[in-house]
Amino acid sequence: NAGVTQTPKFRVLKTGQSMTLLCAQDMNHEYMYWYRQDPGMGLRLIHYSVGEGTTAKGEVPDGYNVSRLKKQNFLLGLESAAPSQTSVYFCASRKQQGTYNEQFFGPGTRLTVL
Amino acid sequence: QQQVKQSPQSLIVQKGGISIINCAYENTAFDYFPWYQQFPGKGPALLIAIRPDVSEKKEGRFTISFNKSAKQFSLHIMDSQPGDSATYFCAAREVKAAGNKLTFGGGTRVLVKP
Prior knowledge:
The complex is a heterodimer of chains A (114) and B (114). Chain A is mainly beta and 114 residues long. Chain A is built from no helices and 11 strands.
């Protein structure tokens, strides 16, 4: 099993450009999450999904959109990138059943917006 | 405003020493407190977790101490090894919150000197 994979690993954008980050998991998990990691801020939740076709806002959703068309994939979109979105982005997934199940994280995508 | 406050931001310890990381929270609805370990260039991975009905949990050289009345919990790394050099995140979850979302502390970068 590959677990949680993220594409791409690195990306440099210019202000105003758009892009989509792809997260894929092969563990048949129902829940999926997008976080951003900034120094001293820990991991902050951007959006999450509790199942195929459903998404919800997290702590810092502004400037991002998501889609979960297939259970195994969770896409994060930036429509008009800003320098403040320079960050490392992590995707995670979790099995629905079980109160104390852990979240499994992908390897991250380092995004720089110039 | 972070709901989970973590300290210190960084610490240096000699091989064989004890590393101590502290976290504090305000939300009394939090009911699950995991710690994640992250190596450079990798995603976070669950290290150890505790529920508030116990005051301590030990797994190998890693121990969580939990003080419910003070709303504080801490990670102790005994006999610290160079391989423990990583960033550690505490987290908390409110069980009734949609999506089983985690709230993370700001992270502590631990360096173990040989």
